[in-house]
Amino acid sequence: MRCPTLAELPKPPAEKSGWPWTEDSERLPEAMPEGGCWPKITVVTPHLNQRPFLEETIRSILLQGYPNLEYILVDGGSTDGSLELIDTYSSWVRCVVREREGQSAALNRGFRMATGELIGWQNSDDFYGPDSFRQAALAAAQQPECAIFHGMVRGFQGQNSQPPWLFENCQEFSRQKFLEGVCVMNQSMFFRRAIFGRGLFLRDDLHFVMDIDFFWRLSLEGFRYCMVPAMTAYYRQHENAKSTSYNVRGDLESYDLLRGLCREKRLSPALRRQARQQLRARFLRAFVAARRTILKKCAIELILPI
To answer: Which of 94, 113, 161, 296 reaches 20 to 30 Å from 281, CA-CA?
Structure first.
């Protein structure tokens, strides 16, 4: 599928302007600069009841001007009008509805359906910057030794997708950096199809750290990361996002991941020691946070009238 033009898409809401509402990317020619066809790109979006943000995601994918696109949206049974919105874009979006299917399982379903040479993962509350697909395709052609391509991710709050940004993340991947903090993010990331051909997918049982676990496993399996700074994406923080509130399950998943890294023989002894230090530090932070929560609850109960 060739990306549609701005005129072919449904009209945006009157209050919306700029990318990806009233602006689009430059339309690419049929052939790459060196000749040959552009590689097919598949984007997979897992979605459940994120209608206020979903259209921005869809339009940022369809308005890339890219000549060889496949877009798969896996919906978990939305009840907020999302399916009606998706239907207005049905000429360009393949929507699969699977009720009560978690985010990881939905992504894996989309990855298995994907037929592209490069496969992206974009959440339904985040979106791509313009010209990102061209940058991904050129990087893949120029660096055949790499299997994962990642770029700049800019964070913002709510509907305000304008600077100043909450953060800007664009770093070369290294295991050292990844232990210290998240240095790569899925919002501006594309995978070669060979990864999924090897049977590597997200863990269905993970809800909070499935991305970090997946990126670690790809590194340990020997797949190389490549930074493409010109490839941009935008990460939205909002009140319904999983990352905005503390969750015990999230801590437990992180503990399990770090415990695995402590025992991982493919890591250097120094990195395994660092993983143990990270595990201790995370446990202490959680313990302090839990004590504060308990004290706060007790204080409220003490001052309430009997």
So the answer is: 296
Please compute the mean of the pLDDT values over residues 146-165 and round it to a whole number.
91
**b/e per residue, 235-273, with b = 16+ CB within 10 A?**
bbeeeeeeeeeeeeebbebbeebbeebbeeeebeeebbe
Q: Confirm if 282 and 251 have CB atoms less than 8 A apart.
A: yes
CB 155 within 8 A of CB 164: no
| Interhelix angle 210-220/103-113, nearest 10 degrees | 50
pTM of the predicted model over 0.85 = yes
DSSP, res 138: H
40-49, 118-127, 258-267, 278-287: lowest mean pLDDT where?
Answer: 278-287
What confidence score (pLDDT) does residue 306 get?
39
Spatial distance between the Cα atoms of 114 and 70, rounded to a whole number of angstroms: 8
CB 124 within 8 A of CB 242: no
Query: What does R_g of the chain's alpha carbons equal in angstroms?
Result: 21
Question: Residues 105-109: contacts with CB within 8 Å, 24+ apart?
Answer: 105/204, 106/46, 106/47, 106/74, 106/76, 107/44, 107/46, 107/74, 107/202, 107/210, 108/201, 108/202, 108/204, 109/74
* Overall average pLDDT of the 273-281 stretch: 91
